[in-house]
Model the fold of this input.
Amino acid sequence: MKPFDVIVIGGGLAGLMAAAVAADNGQRVALLTYGSGSLPLASGAIDFLNAKAPDVAIKNLPAHHPYKKIGLKACDAAAKFFVDIAAKADLPYNGRLSAQIPIVTAVGTLKYSALVPESMDASNLVNKKKIFVVEIKGLKDFYAAMIVDNLKKIFPDKTFEVAKLDLNLLGGRDITCMDAAQIISVNEQILADGLKTLDVGDDDAIIIPPIFGLEGNSSRAAIKSQLRAEILETTCLPPSPTGIRLQRAFIKYLQSSGVRIFENSKVVRGVVDGKKVTGVVVENSVREKVFPARKVILATGGFYSGGITMRDFDQPREPIFDLPVFFPTGAENWSNEQLFSDEPQGFSMTGIFTDESLRPIDESGEILFENLHVVGANLGGSDFVFERSAGGVAISSAYKGATS
Amino acid sequence: MEKATVVVIGGGATGLGILRDLSMRGVKALLVEKNDLVNGASSRYHGLLHSGGRYAVKDQEAARECIIENQIMRKIGKSCVEPCGGMFTRLDIDDEAYEELWVKGCKDSGIEATPITLDEAFKLEPRLSRKHVKSAYLVPDAAVDGFRMAWQLVDSSKRYGGQVKTYTEVIGFDTVNGELRGVKVRDQFTGEEYEIGCDIAVNAAGGWAGFVGKLAGVEIGVQPDKGTLIAFNQRIVNHVVNRLHKSSDGDIFVPHGSITILGTSSMSVPNPEDTSTSRAEVESLLKIGEQTFEDLRDFRILRTFAGSRPLYIPPGGAVGRSASRGFAIVDHDNDGLKGFFTIVGGKFTTYRLMAEKMCNQICAKLGNDTPCRTAEEPLVEEVSQEDKDRAKKFFPSYGVNLAATRLGVDRFKKVVERLESDPESRELVCECENVTRAEAEEICKDDTSFIVNDVRRRTRIGMGTCQGNFCALRAAAVFSEMGVEPTAKDSLARLREFLQGRWKGIRPVLLGRTLRETEMTRAIYELSMNVKGGAPQ
Done:
């Protein structure tokens, strides 16, 4: 096999982004995926940091934080690149790094992100007169009454109404947002007709579960054109159509830009020559195969995706290159008493430390491989949940890793 | 003033057993519990229905009691008992001489212990260590569900007029001239304090018996002894697997449905409220456990939990593992307080016998000569095949049986009617434990459901593989809609509290695939749902 310019290991947000950036730079790219990454779990909104102005807050982070290695310039470029290719794949996003946009969650709180799908952007909710929260008969996991109860605490002066539409979805089994989105992607008119039965004024908003199809913006656009009120999607329990839309948008973009995607390809180890990685070994059900590469991007994720594993206490591992993994030692530093804590969780800070080109380093700071770049959730030094940086670190480290 | 002939203090197996026994004998009885039912050792344990094998050498009286009660429980609590059988295995590091003593002890205590070849043992329990296991015996151990048994005891008691008040804490006693007149209590949610008049009060508060005694001015020798256990996400064993050696930490595995519980440690603690667990305890249990099952660490741990056995310490008696697992009944008439009894010690397997003996004494005082019938009458009627068949149209037969045993005849009928008439009520709120929305609603609207954890204990929502990742949102939402208590309305607080409860048991076992689940919990609830609320500052 002819060596690829870049091999990206991992099909989550960081891997998809890295492959897109590398391809955009004219490189011959292979993307090796195993499993579906964590996008089906995610809202699709890209959090950068839990601060009014993430770009300002990034400057004040400690030196070991991934953003400090990545730098604000790459973060900015990554955000622009992201919004740009999402738009090319017909998935419009709003936002920038200097502000936050609210979206409505499935429990009726607001969640704030720097870049959000247009279909979820709840910035204008404050200006609305009446807010309709729409349940779909037979659709599971969407509880309009609870959403209204909790939204009322944020918007005490607004009028709310719970509405229930029957779109004939009830069948022999549970219907999730994924199922509903699938149905609506082939027949958006049933939702449009249902929403039209509501007594909605121009200044009102409609909140629905995330069911505007599974691909791009076409279902939403078709429905939106028939109604004057603003329609907003919420987040939901996984699998999440809004996360899957983003995943599909990326895959569509990668396919159009010539990236070779090898699914179900489990990378078991690297092929190395001194400080150089020359390829990776992929294992499928029947055999092992070597994929030669000039540069490798490791986007295998953290504990959730198996990019970092830990069978025994205090012994986390990076299973492909056996890279040194930074972690807080001892039970008392590993986790906090509260699950939803006011401090970062130690276990979530676990990961690989790198230089400014995101190449893995050891304890003394020495670069371990010159052409291996670590991106996404396997980077150490940040609790992406606590600080709300999951998507931001993924896309900006991917951008930096692919351009370094 | 509210009145009962007997007030039973403590909603564990012993207290509930007494409530049932008294009610069946026609005595007006009321049980008060400061938390939810079986919040102490009656659920924080292995869920092992002892054959008595464990006590065959050290305490043959306890062993004999166990095997008799074991047979009774299988009969009266059929749907609470999983008759999986038990196996005792001696490892190469265990004392051979003990095996002989044990075989004789079982024989003397009336416990059938059948020797089997190692080949048979490995066939029955393929994961047993081929390196270490040297001999094996089968005994009639079984698994028993403490939660289910508790609710069935309540249902049975209610049929005979028994009453239960949960989240009702005893704060004092009303006595006149050394004679008990009533029990003073406080409602844990409203803070309201009131008195329940009674002739007799029974202190069956388990690990808390000492505190309750103090309120009445009597000294009770009870030592809370904390035991830590680990729940694995798989059924690692088919039988209850015991180490054949002198009883020690971490030497019993009990299968329950789709999980396995390993335990336990034994540590004297000052406070029975201490249900904390630590990485060190988990590590030590795993170290012992992997002597019997070498690949133990490859299984995903669901959580760890701990409870305190209420060990009875007679004046000058032993503590810890050498303390007796027997029980004691104290009539405090001898301490100058007429009408006040304490029952303490014992074990889950013999709760019925303890209750019987306690009630015999109470009834003698009351001049009631109705005999005890708790060993003959089943706790609950069985759900009819006809009702089960109706339910099977809407969910898998595995789930039907779970729901039938959880709900009992009357509630099951109601739930099936809901399933038939409202298709939306058929959705699964909890996939792991097969709980339909109809069932969740039925339990949520019960006036004993104050927080989502109360619903969890009765439905098992959140206790399975996902540990609440998917069902927490649904449970909090259904509860906020259906719950009758004002606490139900604050859905975000209930949701956080529920997940925090799960977290408590996950934290000390945060490794392997459990880490993965935790990252998922946080991604869903902190990132996608922002359950903490608030905006960036």
